């Protein structure tokens, strides 16, 4: 699956739509909101606040969550927008812990893993 701009949520109205109308999973490391789109491929939006840590820590969390997303969803689930909001505990979590929690989120949201 390509990882360019077409796979990312960038506009504030897109985030708001997913937050307001989508289904949500709230976990220890992050929350995941999911809402259908008409594009036929999944897109990801990330929200990592300063509560998670400094700039280096936040960017590390973003990179890990992006990799978790592509490893879990890939091309398996078409037409969904996801917004992952990291919690401070995500900064201390290993990649495997993030991956396991995202798998739980997908199952809870009724999304098949790809």
From TrEMBL:
Name of the molecule in the record: Ribonuclease P protein component
Alphabetized InterPro entries for the sequence: Ribosomal_Su5_D2-typ_SF, Ribsml_uS5_D2-typ_fold_subgr, RNase_P, RNase_P_CS
EC number: 3.1.26.5
HAMAP family: RNase_P
SUPFAM superfamilies per UniProt: Ribosomal protein S5 domain 2-like
Keywords for this protein: Endonuclease, Hydrolase, Nuclease, RNA-binding, tRNA processing
Reactions performed catalytically: Endonucleolytic cleavage of RNA, removing 5'-extranucleotides from tRNA precursor
Assembly and oligomerization: Consists of a catalytic RNA component (M1 or rnpB) and a protein subunit.
């Amino acid at each position: 699956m390509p990882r360019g701009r077409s796979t990312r949520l960038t506009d504030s109205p897109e985030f708001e739509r997913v937050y307001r109308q989508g289904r949500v999973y709230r976990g220890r490391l992050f929350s995941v909101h999911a809402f259908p789109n008409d594009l036929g491929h999944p897109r990801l939006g990330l929200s990592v606040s300063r509560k998670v840590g400094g700039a280096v820590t936040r960017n590390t969390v973003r990179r890990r969550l992006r990799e978790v997303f592509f490893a879990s969803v890939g091309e398996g689930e078409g037409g969904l927008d996801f917004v992952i909001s990291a919690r401070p505990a995500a900064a201390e979590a290993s990649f495997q812990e993030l991956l396991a929690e995202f798998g739980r989120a997908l199952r809870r949201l009724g999304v098949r893993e790809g």
